[in-house]
Amino acid sequence: MQKRCRIIYNPTSGREAMKNDLVYILNILERAGYETSAFQTTPEPNSARNEALRVGQAGFNLVIAAGGDGTINEVVNGIAPLKHRPKMGIIPAGTTNDYARALKIPRDDPIAAAKVIAKGKTIKMDIGQANDKYFVNIAGGGLLTELTYGVPSEFKSLFGYLAYLFKGAELLPQVKPIKMHLEYDGGVFNGRASMFFLALTNSVGGFEQLVPDASLDDGKFTLIVVKTSNLMEILQLITMVLNGGKHVKDPRILYVKTSKLIARPVDEKMMINIDGEYGGDAPMVFHDLKQHIEMFANTDQLPDGAISSEQTPAELTASQHFVEEVEDLTGQELKQTKQADSKTED
Fold it and tell me: How far apart are CA 343 and CA 288, in angstroms?
């Protein structure tokens, strides 16, 4: 039986590069042995999530999220509740593309990203569950929510991660700590903090050293609590992050591994951010779902320790000869394919 693949793509993500490359991506996946079709998301709420749920229930072997981190989150929320889940691929087309960065997937070349999927190498990734929602990269409360919600979508599209930096510089002087009650494996934090993060990967907000010892499949979040709200101290901590992840042992930081977190506000409202979007207000319970979704990744480039010893990357698919042809595609061959398509349209 031929394998079936569904590409769920956001036509407005990032700089809208996907629409131009879609026909060539379909060709790559077909040559890798997939009967491939595409679905363009609509402005309706949960468009990508609903389509991912539908194709998962229909027994598709692979679902690909083509868009930004928001599209990836929606697709994950569509397939995560299913007992039998399709494998998942990612073709980045957004602004920050944190999750693609963590999986070492090319972030500015959709065709190269499709070739990563065609190689057939996967890892079973942890995902997070926050009450009844799922996330793949980060959840948090405090400054993170203020910063993300304050960046207009058109500003993100034009300037990408710089938009967050500009908005962050504007907001830092206004940061005030709030009292949080956080229960994690083997401990409790009960005090004032400017923010907390629950990270699943080493790529958070463009910083690859925020979680220097991140594992993608060990069943553990990395919990980071920033206790200070002093502007100069926060800038010092950011410098330590950029300087090899030296912040992890700083007394102004709580840095621990946990499979679960219960977050409660104490005196005031605490909004929760889930993968860059508003996810509700605390109290909230977070669980790490170990190795829950099998993702295609550029496994050869993952850092040491990113994959646990109990899991080895999947081997190439049975249709390896198709895959090798795809990998060997040169610019000239792609050009010839485009020319042939153009003649067919004429």
Answer: 51
Among candidate residues 95, 117, 63, the one with its CA nearest the CA of residue 293: 63
- Tokens matching residue 177: 């700590």
Helices 18-31 and 110-119 meet at what angle, rounded to 10? 20
Q: Which two tokens stand for residue 225?
A: 């609590």
User: How far is the C-alpha of 172 from the C-alpha of 230, rounded, in Å?
Assistant: 9
How far apart CA 188 and CA 281 sit, in angstroms, is: 20
Active-site annotation holds for 277: yes
Catalytic position from the list 146, 233, 277, 325: 277
**What is the rounded (10 degree) CA torsion for 212, 216, 219, 224?**
30
Question: Tokens 């400017």 map to which residue?
Answer: 194
DSSP structure string for 170-201: HHGGG---EEEEEEETTEEEEEEESEEEEESS
Write 320-323 long-range contacts (CB < 8 A, 24+): 320/120, 322/31, 322/32, 322/33, 322/118, 323/32, 323/33, 323/118, 323/119, 323/120
pLDDT at residue 234 is higher than 60: yes
For residues 214-225, average pLDDT? 94
pTM as predicted? 0.82
CB 42 within 8 A of CB 130: no
pLDDT in tens, 262-288: 999 998 889 898 987 889 999 999 999
